[in-house]
């Protein structure tokens, strides 16, 4: 049995580095191109497994080269796949990386994973309900995420929603979540409150608790680290310095995977937030998404400095 079950999407990342994005109708020369494994849920599963968690990843893939890439990625990381493979092609992502800063802009085409539905979730209800920690995001259809969170709550799993990409949630969805982990943009989409500093992050955290989040809102704040906000404590966890930033793509996924692994092993959620921040800090010093995820020893070494 896996301690952590993650529902999400695998896509093949096609990453382009250039000084800037082209304007509409314009062609520019890029500095480099890379093809590799991606998708928020898959990245989080890899991060959690490398951080020491026992992880099963739940998704759909095509019977194609990108699907084979997914299976190889999970095998290397120690992630157990619970996937259905069909004729719809595996998804892909366009990632633009700004050469000077490492910041990114992304377009996701989920492919086969867009066919994940409530019936698929019900087929795997036993797996979801038996998890210690269940994690999902919003790259697969919303109704599938909602159904999976409902099943996980009935099974008494600790539920984590990474509400990315930003989207309007159905009524009552946040009440199914023990933890919600938005970045600044996603927090604003959920609360209507712009997050620009710690004070506004705390306001957004209070708003998320008022909307039903059960244990805590954890706002990831990029270079500012993260804010852990619950009914009885509000704690800023500063970002760790693990070295020069190469690429920020996948940093949020690293955080969520590290956090899930720490919670699954019984770590206090504030300490789990620190563990997630350390995981993310190492990931941004490396190119790629899934390939940038650190192993447990690296995270513990950074925490011990």
TrEMBL record:
List the catalysed reactions. Answer: D-ribose + ATP = D-ribose 5-phosphate + ADP + H(+)
Q: Any idea which residues are catalytic in this one?
A: 253 (proton acceptor)
The annotation note on the cofactor reads:
Requires a divalent cation, most likely magnesium in vivo, as an electrophilic catalyst to aid phosphoryl group transfer. It is the chelate of the metal and the nucleotide that is the actual substrate.
Query: Could you tell me where this protein is found in the cell?
Result: Cytoplasm
If you read the UniProt record, what top EC class would you report for this enzyme, in one word? transferase
Molecular function terms, GO-annotated: ATP binding; metal ion binding; ribokinase activity
Q: In which pathway does it act?
A: Carbohydrate metabolism; D-ribose degradation; D-ribose 5-phosphate from beta-D-ribopyranose: step 2/2
An example Gene Ontology CC term for this record: cytosol
InterPro entries from the UniProt entry? PfkB_dom, Ribo/fructo_kinase, Ribokinase, Ribokinase-like
Give residues annotated as binding substrate. Answer: 11-13, 39-43, 139, 253
The GO biological-process annotations, alphabetized, read as: D-ribose catabolic process
Question: Where is this protein chiefly located?
Answer: cytoplasm
Mechanisms controlling activity: Activated by a monovalent cation that binds near, but not in, the active site. The most likely occupant of the site in vivo is potassium. Ion binding induces a conformational change that may alter substrate affinity.
Cofactor dependence is on: Mg(2+)
CDD domains xrefs: ribokinase (cd01174)
Q: What EC number(s) would the UniProt record show?
A: 2.7.1.15
Q: What family does the database annotate?
A: Belongs to the carbohydrate kinase PfkB family. Ribokinase subfamily.
Q: What does this protein do?
A: Catalyzes the phosphorylation of ribose at O-5 in a reaction requiring ATP and magnesium. The resulting D-ribose-5-phosphate can then be used either for sythesis of nucleotides, histidine, and tryptophan, or as a component of the pentose phosphate pathway.
Q: How does it assemble?
A: Homodimer.
User: What protein name is recorded for this chain?
Assistant: Ribokinase
Instruction: Identify the species of origin.
Output: Jannaschia rubra
